[in-house]
What we know:
Elements: E1 8-17, E2 22-25, H1 28-34, E3 44-47, H2 55-61, E4 69-74, E5 88-92, H3 94-97, E6 108-111, E7 114-122, E8 125-129, E9 139-149, H4 152-163, E10 169-173, E11 178-183, H5 190-196, H6 198-205, E12 208-213
Amino acid sequence: MKIKKNDFVEIEFTARTKDGKVFDTNIKSEAEKAGLKIKNLKPFVLSVGHHMLIKGLDKELEGKEVGKKYSVELKPEEAFGKRNPEMIKMIPLKKFTEQKINPQRGMQLTIDGIIVKVLSVSGGRVLVDFNNPLAGKNVIYDFKINRKVEDINEKINALQDFFFKKRFKFGVDKNKKIITFKLPQKEKQFENFMKIVAKPFKEILNMEIKAEIEEPAK
């Protein structure tokens, strides 16, 4: 049976540059071999064709078979994008020193959640590259589809991991096609966020979602 769009699958993968340097994987042995310190490694469950992976790899899953190993080389536009000269910015050195950072050429830093590379430091200014470190590069993904996922609870949890980055308890009414997430009082801010992601949930699972705030324990 070949995989098609909207199918949920569990995959394992290892990603490398053309020179063989591994930069990502969800296989523990491969991470250890490459010296990558990635926590909680496990196969990834996703819905095919809904951008839960980089574009090229997501597209590549369609038509593949469970249990077989595949390898694909992706061009920049299918992976991490082309390099954009406008993403190279000049930043005052004091912005770094205020954070007790001494920037040096070649150093990689995280600014506003984005990994950046310091290109040069001179005259009280720092030239920083905001392009993804892999922008402009062809990358290779070795992957295997372990299984097709059929269980509705596992599908819902996969979407929770992707959209919420955490898991809430939930109930499923299959007849009315409604998923009700139970939010603790301290997480009630997710109620509004769930309204935003209601559309992709509907597109992927053909089910509505709603949130219920749990009453505090007495």
